């Protein structure tokens, strides 16, 4: 595509007349005829790689710095992430316009809702692409997930490549704020809930909410919102959207949902997962999928890796590995264990270094109220030393057990639990931690659990 056509409306500078064969933000992936976007990121500055990109074949460069010397046309823009998203949309001929696009946002439940919805729609004969925390899947092929929401260029490339009928996306607040979904057009936008999280990034709950709400400004003219209004933030969002004339698909009230759960999705454990199922159900139902096929899809749903994943032990105890990392998620998870008849609950979890410290006490309060034994450990350190993170723990109102090494913390719970007890391990689910713990190279909670069962659990 011609560079003048690609950059029309995005710069007042004179745009040279040249053909562009591809777009790229990473200099090592540049090929002949590419347009290179020199983006200043958290870990690297693309302006430092302009010479490398040009040597590799870039015929033009977009950047934000004014004092740049290069042998190819260089154009300056103010908001490069915005320009990248819309140039990619133009280059790939707006692929989201011809797909059924479903975006799911909220603090908790995005992953489970997306997997449930995919199961229901595929039981109804529709092929689905999926983008989220656990994996990306396009045309039946799976790819590793680097971010919950891929960047705008990747998304346009993936959707252009997709031959699936439906694209289901988890949409993170970081993804919205960093313009990763900029330019996409959605048929359905879902809001699961909002809980205290990511305030190290957004600073206030109000700012966090407003970022989430931006997803709903990207609905197609015929697009619909699906909102859990039993969360106060959801109720506020629904009121706003109704005033704007946006159609809202109602999610059943809790009492009705409880009745429906007994007949429609009885195997789904926990009220939080019933809400996730209800969110998925109303979308699929609105897409004219038949009730029988939706039930079939739910009954074949085997869960999501690292989300309420059950491991029965030979001792008669049960282990649950879950991604929960907010107070509300803890509440749902621990209450579900009680509903399922847990004799005692052992809760193993930790906090991440250089992340939102303001939510820690709330999480700890919920855990100590609903658990019989709390074992506080660490999550990713993110640049802190163990000693520095533990010093922050000393500021919390907590006098219970602290075992810094995550492997040892899980071992302690396994050692003390007996028949009928539930061991709840929350953190990154089955995603790897950055740290290497004391016993070998086990890097995620599932691998730690399996290692401990093999080497340290009571015989």
UniProtKB/TrEMBL annotation:
It is found in: Cytoplasm. It comes from the Bacteria. It is an enzyme of class 6 (ligase). SUPFAM superfamilies: MurD-like peptide ligases, catalytic domain (SSF53623), MurD-like peptide ligases, peptide-binding domain (SSF53244), MurE/MurF N-terminal domain (SSF63418). Keywords: Cell cycle, Cell division, Cell shape, Cell wall biogenesis/degradation, Ligase, Peptidoglycan synthesis. Its EC number is 6.3.2.13. Its main location: cytoplasm. Residues 19-92 form the Mur ligase N-terminal catalytic domain. Pathway: Cell wall biogenesis; peptidoglycan biosynthesis. Residues 104-255 form the Mur ligase central domain. Belongs to the MurCDEF family. MurE subfamily. This is UDP-N-acetylmuramoyl-L-alanyl-D-glutamate--2, 6-diaminopimelate ligase. It comes from Chryseomicrobium palamuruense.
């Amino acid at each position: 595509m011609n560079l003048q056509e690609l950059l029309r409306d995005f710069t007042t500078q004179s745009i040279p007349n040249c053909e562009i064969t591809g777009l790229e933000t990473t200099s090592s992936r540049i090929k002949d005829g590419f347009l290179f976007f020199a983006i200043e990121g958290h870990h690297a500055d693309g302006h430092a790689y302009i010479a490398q990109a040009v040597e590799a074949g870039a015929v033009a460069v977009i950047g934000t710095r004014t004092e740049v010397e290069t042998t190819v046309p260089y154009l300056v823009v103010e908001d490069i992430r915005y320009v990248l998203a819309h140039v990619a949309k133009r280059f790939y001929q707006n692929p989201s316009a011809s797909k059924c696009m479903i975006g799911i946002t909220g603090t908790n439940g995005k992953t489970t809702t997306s997997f449930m919805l995919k199961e229901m729609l595929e039981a109804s004969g529709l092929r689905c692409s999926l983008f989220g925390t656990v994996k990306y899947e396009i045309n039946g092929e799976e790819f590793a997930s680097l971010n919950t929401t891929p960047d705008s260029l990747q998304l346009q490339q993936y959707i252009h490549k997709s031959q699936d009928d439906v694209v289901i996306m988890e949409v993170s607040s970081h993804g919205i704020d960093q313009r990763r979904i900029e330019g996409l057009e959605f048929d359905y936008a879902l809001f699961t809930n909002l809980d205290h999280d990511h305030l190290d990034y957004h600073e206030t709950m109000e700012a966090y909410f407003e970022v989430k709400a931006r997803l709903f400004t990207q609905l197609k003219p015929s697009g619909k919102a699906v909102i859990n209004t039993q969360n106060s933030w959801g109720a506020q969002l629904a009121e706003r959207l109704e005033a704007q004339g946006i159609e809202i698909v109602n999610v059943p009230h809790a009492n009705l949902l409880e009745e429906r759960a007994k007949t429609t999705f009885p195997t789904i454990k926990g009220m939080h997962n019933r809400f996730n199922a209800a969110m998925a159900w109303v979308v699929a139902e609105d897409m004219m999928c038949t009730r029988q096929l939706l039930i079939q899809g739910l009954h074949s749903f085997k869960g999501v890796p690292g989300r309420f994943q059950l491991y029965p032990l030979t001792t008669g105890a049960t282990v649950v590995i879950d991604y929960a990392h907010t107070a509300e998620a803890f509440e749902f998870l621990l209450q579900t264990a009680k509903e399922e008849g847990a004799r005692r609950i052992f809760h193993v979890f930790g906090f991440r270094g250089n992340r939102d410290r303001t939510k820690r006490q709330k999480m700890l309060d919920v855990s100590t109220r609903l658990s019989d034994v709390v074992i506080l450990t660490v999550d990713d350190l993110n640049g802190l030393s163990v000693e520095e993170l533990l010093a922050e723990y000393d500021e919390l109102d907590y006098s219970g057990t602290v075992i810094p090494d995550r492997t040892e913390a899980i071992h302690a719970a396994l050692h003390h639990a007996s028949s009928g007890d539930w061991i709840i391990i929350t953190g990154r689910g089955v995603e790897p931690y950055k740290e290497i713990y004391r016993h070998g190279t086990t890097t995620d909670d599932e691998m730690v659990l399996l290692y401990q069962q093999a080497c340290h659990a009571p015989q």
